[in-house]
Design brief:
Length: 731
């Protein structure tokens, strides 16, 4: 293919003009959609290209262009739009911010169509009636994007009630998202068609110097090293979408033997994309950079300038992703083949301003990889399905047709029916309505974007409680989002054995937990982890301020070498908890505002402990398991599916901790109730990544307040669904 601009200026201008120029026959709300190419133009950022097209196409344009995009894209350079020297006034916000504009613009002052929206301006936090909004939708289609899309289309068409309104909405995506805005518009304008421009390159490849014929790790490493070794003065960027460590370990060892010590570096992009800023240009003229990227990253490739060679390793596999697992009827972490769309997106990372470009593929030839692949997964139908369905019903007052909107995005599959049942059992939905009380609803929707739209965690935090309990629940949510195993690391495989044999050491271990949850530390690994993490934060803070806490410092020395902490992740979890606290306080939600030192003095009474456990059960009730100890072995059965669930073993896992109080209650044949935050498929079996004890009295009280007091009926799966997840692979 020819090397030309990703967004041809003349084509773009003509499309904008034909789609949005106003004439007597035009509707006052107009829409259009562009399918984008899979790469980023090296000369003109897409925001500038679109702004120039609007400026050139619409004479005398005075209104602000509002670009709406994902958090990832918002962080891409240039962050400041003023540096682009745009021909029109423009700004960029996230989809979450657009949802906030929609909420603030909504006012139920009348039931008449059009009167429910307040007129106003961007500066007032209200959507103006002459808005020009460009939505850049990413392939993963997260809940905030889908909700904002449904909301903005409803708002735009409602605004036609006002005679002087002039709303223009342009949606853009590299994926096949056109049918979403098209069908949402047809809900209100039957038979309406919107203009569509396809700027993608279809089945064309970017230009490539050579495609490697090797299909195994050793062959690919050898091919890359041969290219690097042919000219040691040249720079190389090696972009790998393989997610296993083996090939990268081999490549690192081989490249370090070829390059000087400072001429090789490896970087990994998982969730934080600021890594790109360090390698968008070669750090030195002869560098070899190995850049590991997740195979489904929902981002247009950055432009890497100055490299002599760019290598891309495409992959047909994702090494573990959370998604709806058909057989388990849950959101589960499982190994998945990449979709065809993800494979083509990986390929186009090769489109860089480098003189030479090299392409590789483990296991299968590149052509076969691109010909195959499964249906693309969107997050609103996977790990965010519960949050999305709840979110649609939450905005029903906007005039959204909930059932039809959900059908447009999710279809009528069994998982939709099942998730609605679960949301009703958890009292989020009732009789086709969003049923959380006002304060709980405020907390729920405020917390969702901070917990990656995990509705379980949002519900846990939202359930009504006192300010102290709310603070601790925020900390639990932050701990689970960042992940316990990435914060607290057990270094000794004899720790649990020692604790079980030595009562004094066991008591000291509980004493080492922060005072706020020390009383619950013996009730489960989650509470234990929370106490240990907060103690670590307290000790780090005290050291920085040259303060002493002798008894905790002594205990820290006792357990030195047995467990340690990852400071970066511990701090990240602390910042997340702090951010959520500030957000809630900004919504006038009471949250205890205490220093880390004051937390040490908090003691939960019995009612507060029961509240924490009850709210945790409510949020995770559909992952409730019944466990019993028989001849030293623990057997777990999940109530929802009656499937056996194993707890991932390991003496170096904090989650291997089984509370003595739970064991005491299980004596005599009684079962232990427990819930888990994470589930994982390992070689065809369902495993719990963690396990937290739920006292039987908590479950009993919930059932006493429920119309159907049969636990099995309440939690059972009543949907018929295929038992096979077709894109799953087993290692």
């Amino acid at each position: 293919m020819s090397e030309h601009a990703a967004l041809d200026p003349a084509t773009l201008k003509e499309f904008i003009a034909s789609s949005f120029s106003q004439d007597g026959a035009s509707e006052r709300a107009r829409f259009a959609h562009i399918k984008l190419p899979l790469y980023r133009d090296p000369e003109t950022p897409w925001i500038k290209a679109v702004a120039q097209a609007f400026s050139g196409a619409l004479e005398g344009l005075e209104g602000k262009l509002m670009f709406v995009t994902t958090d990832y894209e918002l962080e891409m350079e240039p962050v400041d739009l003023s540096s682009m020297e745009l021909p029109v006034d423009a700004d960029k916000i996230t989809f979450q911010r657009l949802l906030e504009y929609l909420r603030y613009s909504f006012s139920c002052v009348s039931i008449e169509r059009g009167h429910r929206w307040r007129p106003g301006t961007w500066d007032q936090g209200i959507l103006p009636d002459d808005a020009i909004i460009i939505l850049h939708m990413d392939p993963s289609l997260q809940a905030d994007c889908a909700l904002a899309l449904a909301g903005i289309i409803k708002w735009a068409i409602d605004m036609e009630f006002w005679f002087d309104s002039d709303v223009r909405i342009l949606t853009m995506s590299t994926s096949d998202h056109f049918h979403f805005p098209s069908q949402l518009i047809q809900l209100q304008r039957h038979g309406s068609n919107i203009p569509f421009l396809d700027l993608s390159y279809g089945s064309c490849w970017p230009s490539v110097t050579q495609v490697s014929g090797s299909s195994d790790d050793d062959g690919i490493v050898s091919d890359i090293c041969q290219v690097v070794g042919n000219d040691l003065t040249a720079s190389h960027l090696i972009i790998s979408f393989e997610e296993t460590d083996i090939i990268h370990d081999k490549m690192s060892e081989a490249l370090r033997s070829i390059k000087e010590r400072d001429a090789f570096m490896m970087r990994t992009v998982l969730k934080e994309i600021d890594v790109f800023s360090n390698v968008v240009r070669p750090p030195r003229a002869d560098v070899a950079v190995l850049l590991r990227i997740t195979g489904d990253i929902p981002l247009l490739p950055p432009v890497f300038r100055g490299y002599d060679n760019v290598h891309v390793i495409v992959s047909d596999r994702l090494h573990g992703r959370e998604g709806w697992h058909h057989k388990s009827r849950h959101v589960v972490d499982f190994f998945r083949y990449t979709s065809n769309q993800e494979r083509w997106a990986q390929l186009w990372w090769l489109q860089q301003p480098a003189e030479r470009r090299w392409l590789y593929s483990p296991r299968l030839p590149v052509a076969d990889v691109l010909d195959q692949g499964f249906r693309h997964h969107r997050r609103i139908e996977d790990d965010q399905i519960g949050a999305f369905i709840a979110g649609v019903y939450d905005v029903k007052d906007w005039g959204i047709d909930c059932a039809k909107t959900i059908e447009i995005f999710l279809g009528n599959g069994a998982r939709v029916y099942e998730m609605k049942r679960r949301l009703e059992a958890q009292r989020i939905l009732s009789n086709g309505e969003f049923s959380l009380p006002d304060l709980e609803a405020t907390v729920f929707r405020s917390i969702l974007p901070h917990v990656q739209y995990d509705y379980r965690l949002a519900l846990f935090v939202a359930a009504d409680c006192d300010p102290t309990v709310r603070l601790l629940k925020l900390q639990v949510a932050a701990l689970l989002i960042v992940r316990i195993e990435e914060i607290i690391i057990i270094e000794s495989d004899t720790l649990w054995l020692s604790l079980n044999k030595q009562q004094e050491l066991y008591d000291e271990f509980l004493e080492y937990c922060m005072g706020s949850v020390r009383c619950m530390a013996n009730q489960g690994s989650l509470w234990l982890a929370l106490g240990l993490w907060r103690t670590h934060i307290l000790l780090e803070s005290s050291r920085e301020q040259n303060e002493r806490i002798p008894h905790l410092e002594k205990l820290a020395r006792t357990f030195s070498g047995l467990l340690t902490y990852e400071n970066g992740q511990a701090t990240r979890a602390g910042k997340l908890a702090q951010t959520m606290r500030i957000v809630l306080q900004g919504q006038d939600v009471p949250v205890a505002d205490v220093t880390i030192r004051d937390e040490m003095e908090i003691t939960l009474d019995k009612d507060q402990q029961f509240m924490m456990q009850s709210h945790l059960f409510r949020a995770y009730m559909h992952q409730l398991t019944a466990a019993s100890i028989h001849e030293g072995n623990r057997l777990e059965v999940q109530f929802a599916t009656m499937a056996e669930v194993k707890v991932i073993p390991g003496n170096c896992r904090l989650t291997a901790f089984t509370p003595r109080e739970a064991l005491r209650q299980s004596e005599g044949g009684n079962c232990m109730f427990g819930i888990n935050h994470g589930l994982q498929m390992i070689k065809g079996s369902l495993w719990a990544k963690d396990w937290v004890w739920i006292p039987q009295v908590v479950v009993a009280e919930w059932l006493a307040e429920t119309a159907d007091s049969d636990l099995s009926k309440l939690l059972s799966v009543n949907c018929m669904e295929v038992d096979r997840t077709v894109d799953e692979y087993v290692e």
